[in-house]
Amino acid sequence: SIIEAKWASEPSPPIAATLMRDHDRLALCELQEEELGELRAAFRGDRRVEIHQRDGYEALKALLPPKERRALVLIDPPFEAQEQEFDIIRKAIEPALARMASAVVAIWYPIKLRQMINPFHRWLRQSGLPKVLACELLLRDWSAAADSLARLRELLERGAAGREPALVLVQRCW
Question: CA dihedral in degrees (36, 39, 45, 48; nearest 10)?
Answer without folding.
Answer: -100
